[in-house]
Every structure is written in C-alpha cells, then in structure tokens.
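Work Package 3 (structural annotation) set out to generate three-dimensional models for the target panel prioritized at the project kickoff. During this period the team completed the workflow that converts sequence records into discrete structure tokens, so that structures can be stored uniformly alongside our sequence database. As a representative example, we reproduce one entry of 142 residues exactly as it appears in the project archive.
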Amino acid sequence: MPLYVYECVCGARFEELVRLGDGSATHKCTSCAGVAHKCVSAANHCFGESSAGDGNSGVTAVDGNLDMLIGRSAARRWQQIEKVEADKSAIRRQTGASFLRRAGDGSYQPVPEPERQIRDKVARQHNRARRGEDGWVAVGSE
C-alpha cells in the first residue's frame, strides 16, 4: 500500500497508508477532523530502464546519460583551467616574471617591479599588524 502525505488547513501534516487505487486527493484530518489535502512528495522508486552499467549510481540508464554529460562538462572546464595555466607558464618563461596579473581582456601580464614592491610592502605591514607589532592590535584579537 502506498504511503501518502496529507496536510490540513489547521496546519497538521500526517501520513496515511491507502489502498492502491484509493489514493483520493482528500482525507479526514487526524487533528481537527477537517478535510486534509494530499501533498506532492518525493518518490522512493524510479520508473525507467534497467541499469546500463555505465552510470555511477547504477540506478538507471538515464543516470548513465546524466553522468556522461556531467563528465563532459567537467572535462571541458579542466581543459580551460589547463589552458590558462599553460598560458601563464609560457608568459613566465618568456618574461622571467614570477608574479602575473589579469588584464582587462582576460590575458595575463607580468606585474611591473614598482607595483610588486608596493604590494610586498603592504603585505609586510599587514602581517606585522596581524602579529601585533608596531603598536597595532589585530582586529578580533582583543
């Protein structure tokens, strides 16, 4: 017998085992004896083809198709990441620069030495402040 979930206007939610084919849209509320309406709930089974063996979940052949789509999408994303890393490595080899920044067009450029020195100075000041040096107290350490 299927288990149906009903909800009443009084706010009560309850489950009822109902004979197959007798799952009417309404049922008597267990709290107020009013009319409760059947709720849509998740299915605990799947109607579909048998397992094709190529999906990770092993539930149905439909899962195999979904797994393949997800795999292809992930493979494309990894290819993009690998391409970006290869581009960065090529720029580092050509310029000898260690630090790169992203330009407005999405490409990468070496960080000019004066800018890198300013960034390093700010980072050192920040780290000293976090450690409580120079009379500064780090936020949240009080």
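The first helix runs from residue 61 to 95.
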